[in-house]
Amino acid sequence: MCILKNGRGCQMGLNQKLIDNIRKVEPYVPGEQPQDRVIKLNTNENPYPPAPGVERALLEMDVDRFRLYPDPSVEKLASALAERYQAGPDQIFVGVGSDDVLSMCFLTFFNSRKPVLFPDITYSFYKVWAELYRIPYECPKLNEAFRIVKEDYYRENGGVIFPNPNAPTAIYENLDFVEDIIAHNRDVIVIVDEAYIDFAGKSALELIDKYDNLIVVQTFSKSRSMAGMRIGYAISNPALIKYLNDVKYSFNSYTMNQASIACGVEAVKGQEYFEKTIRKIVETREWAKGELKKLGFEFTDSQANFIFAAHPQYDAGELFEALKKKKIYVRHWDSERIRQYLRITVGTREEMEQLFTALREYL
Fold first, then answer.
1. Position 3 pLDDT exceeds 60
2. Which of 22, 27, 119, 179 is the most buried (most CB within 10 A)?
3. 357 to each of 292, 311, 352, 361, 362, how far by Cα in Å?
């Protein structure tokens, strides 16, 4: 018998029979979240605050409502998003960040014995969810330029998911390219993960009414500066959204808290502010590309709020550690094909200038 004492857990090993029946999975590894003051360019957060209406919503919030459960249908936020994207409220599914939404999509729609397809270099949570839910999957390789080969997705499968722009490569594919993949997969669900679309080009939302197998997922974490509020959403046809809600209500009806709903509505309303911050980030991104090129870096044509870059003369892992010592955090993966690349979030102009000062000192 194990007795807990002084807050310490039992040191006894688990019975092997217990272990045999435990679901085990290799977890997603998030970017570091340092608590001290650093230049944080490692998790693709927006460097600017949320829309002014978000702060106002927090200040005016009736805290007495916190004792009540939130609206499980998230009607106010769903309606605000429906108005923004000229869709019906029954075409919107809201979750606790796009990770929650995507996880629900995996659980709801990827139930075939055939493999789900997603790129070999992409958002690493896809593989985690597939393994967690025991979903077979295959990962067609990006080509040498880190681009999706659309013909690889023409074969028989149990569903398709890919980000556009892709992460961590930052490459955006145009709408015709995306539509071609959807059109070749009419008998399965195709999910286009658009976490970074606001920094890029046309959204696949333009195709929602044309394809009944399409789900587009977006987030408030990047372009709307709300990563800490955890708001994501899917837009599709009413039938697929109903299936998603059926699974959600079977899992946890009250996923979105009162504060997030109220702040999310105000974030959607702040369209002018939203467009202003997007312009600032894109302008800084394009300037940063020029500065990286001057220093000899090679990089993909980023259309996201981050840049995927490598230097042919310097080891990325060593450069990552050198920047970290200067309290500048970027992202590095010791993974095949991309271990010589760094993913650099686009911060403010001032933050990026400090990054380049550190790079010039190192190179």
1. no
2. 119
3. 11, 16, 9, 6, 9
The pTM score is 0.92
Contact between residue 55 and residue 225 where contact means Cβ atoms under 8 Å apart: no
Number of C-beta neighbours around residue 201 at 10 A: 12
**Other beta carbons less than 10 A from residue 70's beta carbon:** 18
For helices 349-362 and 271-294, give the axis angle rounded to 10 degrees: 20
Contact 283, 326 (CB under 8 A): no
Reply yes or no: is the peptide bond before residue 165 cis, omega within 30 of 0: yes
Q: Which residues contact 135 (CB under 8 A, 6 or more apart)?
A: 106, 110, 111, 116, 129, 158
186 to 109, 131, 160, 190: CA distances (angstroms): 14, 25, 11, 8
Rounded-to-integer distance, Cα 348 and Cα 225, Å: 13
Q: What is the pLDDT of residues 45-57, one digit of tens each?
A: 999 999 999 999 9
Q: E-strand spans in 51-189?
A: 92-95, 116-117, 137-138, 159-163
Residue with tokens 């796009």: 98
Residue 253 amino acid letter: S
Take residue 195 and report the two structure tokens written for it.
């976490």
